[in-house]
Amino acid sequence: MTFPARLAVASKNAHKRREIARICADWPVTWLEDADWPDVDEPHATYLENALAKALAVSAALGVPALADDSGIEVDALGGGPGPRSARFAGEGASDQENLALLVEELGRAVGRPRTARYRCVAAVAWPEGETLHAEGVCEGSLVTEPSGERGFGYDPIFVPVGFDRTMAELTDEEKDRISHRGRALTALGERLATTG
């Protein structure tokens, strides 16, 4: 396995697709955009299982390798939740705003508990023959209860990465991509692809 000549991005999330395009801009691949890929559920208990399910399904449907990721926020005061269910924390079909509001509400009830948290991402590439390769990235931080910033998406307005005094939603794209869970996972995956052959 090495960098495929063509690679589909197995995500319909526009925010995530933009981040992947920025982070992987130097990958020597031709990106397949706006392909007719299938909707894939994320019913699994781990990021890896969800990422592989998406990558394998899209790769099989299109007949080309596919890149997918699954990510979430792990809040220590919530026992590591919502984790792989971060996108559905407030229920199936919940918006980013609804998920964010519920997490702020939960933090308000967790008086005296630590506000530490981390973003975790697993990125995977799958080939039509069923081969896969994956990597993980983590970004440690803490949470605030007053959302701040207009950039990013998801829980970024309340997540302050270690080493910063601003939320993820207040960082520039370059700052975020360098330290984010997705940036680290995709960088590690790119390194694995470059050295696997």
Explain what you see.
- This protein has 197 residues and is an alpha/beta fold.
- 31% of the residues lie in helices and 23% in strands.
- It has five helices and seven strands; from the N terminus they run βαβαββαβββαα.
- It has helices at 14-23, 47-62, 96-109, 173-179, 181-195, and strands at 6-9, 30-32, 66-75, 81-82, 116-126, 132-143, 159-161.
- Strands 1, 2, 3, 4, 5, 6 and 7 form a seven-stranded mixed sheet that branches.
- Helix 1 (14-23) links the parallel strand 1 and strand 2 (30-32).
- Helix 4 packs across helix 5 (181-195).
- The N and C termini lie close together (5 Å).
Topology summary:
Elements: E1 6-9, H1 14-23, E2 30-32, H2 47-62, E3 66-75, E4 81-82, H3 96-109, E5 116-126, E6 132-143, E7 159-161, H4 173-179, H5 181-195
Parallel strand pairs: 1-2, 1-3
Antiparallel strand pairs: 3-4, 3-5, 5-6, 6-7
N-to-C order of helices and strands: EHEHEEHEEEHH
Distance between the termini: 5 Å
Radius of gyration: 17 Å
Name the shape in a single word.
Answer: globular
> Strand tally, please?
7
Give the % helix. Answer: 25-40%
Q: Counting H and I runs of at least 4 residues, what is the number of helices? A: 5
Structural class: alpha/beta
Average pLDDT taken over every residue:
93
Strand content: 15-25%
Q: In this structure, how is the largest beta sheet organized? A: 7 strands, mixed
Low-pLDDT ranges:
none
